[in-house]
Design goal:
about 90 residues, alpha+beta, YaeB-like fold, five-stranded mixed β-sheet, about 40% helix, globular
Amino acid sequence: MTSAEALREAARAGRYRQFELSSHALQRMKQRNVTRRDIGLALSSATSAAHEGGNKWRIDGGTDDDGEPLGVVIVFTGRGLVVTVF
């Protein structure tokens, strides 16, 4: 998978809210007051994808509902995406 393909798939998943949240993501969301909507917006507005090995990608350049930067790490599982936030 290329960076462009990963970014395109992340944007699609964000737009349609088709992603699962890891337990780590749920912890981080609570700590940072991040909602599922925020993650969807960050994924759909992201501008870059960096491969982190295997099926893991770091998605950057997106913003949450308040216009604040929100980075997301996604793992392509074959059934969809699993995400965490940073």
